Amino acid sequence: MAGKVRHLVTRSGRYHARLVVPKDLRGIVGKTELRTPLGGDYRQALKLLPGAVAQLQHQIAQAEQQAGAGQRQTGPSRYPLAPDQLAHSLYAQRLAFDDEIRNSPAYPAVGQIGIDDLLVQRLRDAIAGKANDAELGALVGAQIERFRAAGNLDAEPGSEAWREITRALCHAELEALARVVERDEGDFSGTPSAPIIKDAQPPEKAPEPISLKRLWTDYVTMRQQTGSMRDGGKQLGLAVEKLREFVRHDDAARLTKKDIMAWRDQLLKSLSAQTVSSKYLSTVRSVLNWAVENDRLPENVAATVRQAKPKRVKAREKGFTDAEALKILKVSRSYEPHKDETGRIRETQHMIAAKQWVPILGAFTGTRVTEITQLRKEDIRLEGDQWVARLTPDAGTIKTGEYRDVPLHPQIVQEGFIEFVENAASGPLFHHGTDPAQFDRKATQISNRLSEWLREKELVTDMRVRPTHAWRHRFKSQCIELDIQTRVYDAIQGHAGKTASENYGDVSLKAKIDAINKLPFYDLK
C-alpha cells in the first residue's frame, strides 16, 4: 500500500511535507492527504523534512494495520531511507516530542526530569560498536520496527545493515538528549554535532506514479489507430484489471518481476496454463513492452516471465464431423419453442430465430458466430441474382475492423431465410438491441446462450469441440477438400493473408460465390 509523497510543497509561501492517502485507506484516515508544516525557510524545511515524512508514513502504516494489511514488512521497503536519513528523522521526532511536552499545560508542574547517565553511557557504547544485538534492540529496537512499518527499511535483525541502522539511531537518541539538557537551561539554539545527523541528505524525490490503467488505455488507442483492437480491448483488458487487483495498486513503475510471477501463480489456481500464458501474461507483456518503447517505463518486468503450455493432444478434428453437423442442423431447422404450463412461450423471438438460423449460416459461411448474431435486416441484400450478407462494424464488432460481403449458399435461401428476413422488423435479426453501442454485447449474449442450448440438448457432447466455433474449422476443411483457393475462403471467413503477396489484389464477390456454391447441400429431411 503506497501513498504518494510530495516532499516539499509550498502553500502561501510556506513549506509542507505532503502524503496522498491511498483510496482504500481514506475511510480509516479520514482524509485524502496528510500534511505537516515545515516553516517558511527552505533550508530549515529541508532539515525537518525526513522526520516529517516518516511521521506521515507512520500514520499510513497504522491505517494499514487497522485495515488488516499491516503484516510485517518482508519485501523491499516502499519509502527507503539511508541510515543517516533515519537518524535525522528520529532526531527531529524526538525534538518535536520535546516541544509537545513543553507546550503541555502540565509541564510546569512536572518540572525537569533529568537525564539518565546510564542510558547515555549505553548509547555511547552502542555508537562505539561495543553493544551486542540484544542490547541494540533494547535501545532502539522499537524505533527500528516503527520505521519498518512505515516502509523505510527492510534490514533483518542482526544483519550488518541492521546494526549500522541501530548505531545511527543511537546517535540520534544521544544528540536529542543533549538538546533536551540544553533546553532545560533555556538554550534552544543547539544543533547536532554528529556528522551522521547534521550532514544527512533529504530523501530523493519520490518518482511520479505511472498509472497502469492509463498505460492500457493509451496502448489500446495506439492499436486502434493501426486498425487493431476495434472492440476497445474489452477481453484483453481483463488481464490488466486482474493484475491491478492482485498487486493492490495502479502504479506500473512499482511492478516487479516477483509481482508478475506471483500473479501468474495465483491465476494458475483457477485458469488453465494455456489461458494464463496466451491471454494474461501475453497481454501484460505487450502493454509493458509498448510502455518501454515509448519511454513511459524504464524496463518491462514481465519480459521474461513465461508459463509453459501443455502440449496439445489432438484426439479428433476441431470441426464438426458429417454426423455431428447433420444432427445439429436437423434439430436447428425444425426447432419450435416450447410453451409453459400456462400456454405461454417464454423465449424471445430473437432467440428462437438464432436457434433456427445461426447454425446453418455458420455451416455455409464459416464466419464467427458473433458476426452472425449481430446481422441486421439491412445487411442482407440481393446482388444481381445472388443474395449476400454484409458483415460490417456498423452492426457490432468485426475482428479485422473491415466490412466484408459473404454470399449466401443456395440451401440457406431454399430453407426460407430470405422470407424470414423480409418479415423481420428493421434492425438486428437475432437480438433486441436498439443502441448500436450495445450491439456487440447483445450479439455476444445470444452467441453464449446458443452454445449453452447446444450443450443442454446434447447436440454437441464432445467437450473438445466448441459448439459454435467448430463451424469455422469444418468450413475450412470442406474448402480444402473442394480445392478452393486459400485466399478465397480466407476472404469469406475474415482471415488475414499469410504472406505479403496475398495482400495484393482483391477477392471478388464472384470468386466467393463460385466457392460457396461448391459446398454440398445437407440432407435435412
Overview of this structure, please?
By secondary structure, the chain is mainly alpha-helical. It contains 21 helices and six strands. Helices cover 50% and strands 7% of the residues. The model is unreliable at 1-7, 68-74 and 109-113 (pLDDT under 50). Strands 1-2-3 form a three-stranded antiparallel beta sheet, covered by helices on one side. Strands 4-5-6 form a three-stranded antiparallel beta sheet. It folds into three domains: 43-56 and 75-198, no CATH class; 212-293; 322-518, Intergrase catalytic core (hpI Integrase, Chain A). Keywords: DNA integration, DNA recombination, DNA-binding. One of its GO terms (molecular function) is DNA binding. It comes from Ruegeria sp. PrR005. Pfam families: DUF6538.
How many distinct domains? 3
Q: What's the CATH superfamily of the largest domain, by name?
A: Intergrase catalytic core
Strand order of the largest sheet: 1-2-3
Return Rg in Å: 35 Å
Helical content (DSSP H or I, runs of 4+): 40-55%
Low-confidence stretches: 1-7, 68-74, 109-113
SS elements, strand count = 6
The secondary-structure element order is EEHEHHHHHHHHHHHHHHEEEHHHHHH
Average pLDDT figure: 83
Strand residue percentage: 5-15%
The main pleated sheet reads as: 3 strands, antiparallel
- CATH level 1 name of the largest domain: Mainly Alpha
So what's the overall shape? elongated
Compute the number of helices. Answer: 21
Q: What class, by secondary structure content? A: mainly alpha
In the CATH hierarchy, the architecture of the largest domain is Orthogonal Bundle
